[in-house]
Amino acid sequence: MRSVILCLILFSFLGPGLSAQEEHTFDLSEIEKKAFQFGGYLEFRPVLFGLDRDSWLYKLKFYDVEEGETISEYNFNALFDASYEKGIVKAKIRTNTDVSKSFSGWTYDTTLYEAFLSVKPSLSFHLDAGKKRMKWGKGYAWNPVAFIDRPKNPNDPYLALEGVVVVSMDYIKSFQGKLKTITLTPVLVPVYDHINSDFGERNKLNFGGKLYFLFYDTDIDIMFLLGESVPARYGIDFSRNVTSNFEIHGELAYIPDHSKKVIDRNGNVAEENYASTSYLLGARFLTSANTTFIFEYFKNGNGYTFSEMGNFYFLIEQAYQSYLLTGDDSQLNFLAGAASQAYRTFAPMQNYLYLRISQKEPWDILYFIPSFTSIFNLTDKSFSLTPELLYNPITNLELRAKIAVLLGKSGSEFGEKQNDFRLEFRIRYYF
Length: 431
What we know:
The chain is globular. Helix content is 12%, strand content 52%. The protein has an 18-stranded antiparallel barrel. It has one domain (35-430): Porin (Beta Barrel). It has four helices and 18 strands. By secondary structure, it is mostly beta strands.
């Protein structure tokens, strides 16, 4: 009571002075969730490539162009994200626009990343229809069980990606005990001329699903995808916090009848069918000094062997020598086309290690995170090293500088990339 009286006395003395200043009010509308929300970012990203003029992928791309030791590229990117929610209905749209200036000139592309309608009549049920990302899998750099999503770039796994047109449903049920939650997610994936046309064989309707458990404080997913657009596939993943600063995760994908295009040393393309098993095991550890370690091993059952990749490089060599003698570039164009696309993906071979180390605000430098990432090909012993500096000097502004150095012998994956290094600077403003 004495404290209340004292506060009243102080207010009686200070009240007139306070009233002379700006009046402060509390408006509930400032914290209420708005029906319409809009955001995104604007980005400028210049890149300098140090070319490896002796590599076969360089000769495949630049065989008829005389380039120097380096080439530059200037990228402008705008991502817009908008949503509207009213009652049980929510609509979301996300677009991405890329404008690039490279050695080949200017390019412009706008892609609809997501556009879907969501209906949520209760906390335990909601229905989505439209273009969206499913985000299956627990891995950071790779997700072998992401049967519906597009593959990540392990060099930048947090980039926004284009979604897939689906109809999906979530039914959530909670329990008391060791089994705390079950979520059932059936998914329809149509494939037609103008709907998911790059997903697989067209004019087919595919059906997939995921069953999620929170069991003994472990996240577990069981998923599948069936249909005629792509071979049937089945998967399982898990994630568990062993301690508050140590997490383990894993994924396993099985395709009973996987079809892989293989080019032999004579340039013949054949389809090899076999039962494919891919899996990933990883861990994330945070030290008391705010250093984060992420480690993953990826076994890519869909990838190529060392000899199969060697055949591809051999064909490029033969096609390049033929071009120098005759001027005929038809074989080079064939090797740069769709038939060899799988040889030029982010992880074309079978055994990889991923390591990322990041340190939050070292030496008490606020909003500064240096990191180091390495991807190691266990089959041919080639690898990449990528140090990175990330700084947020003011709210909503992000500055990033990184350099990726590729190392490997002749005939290895990173040794035959078209560049020896990639220096990149990024300015991104969020709104």
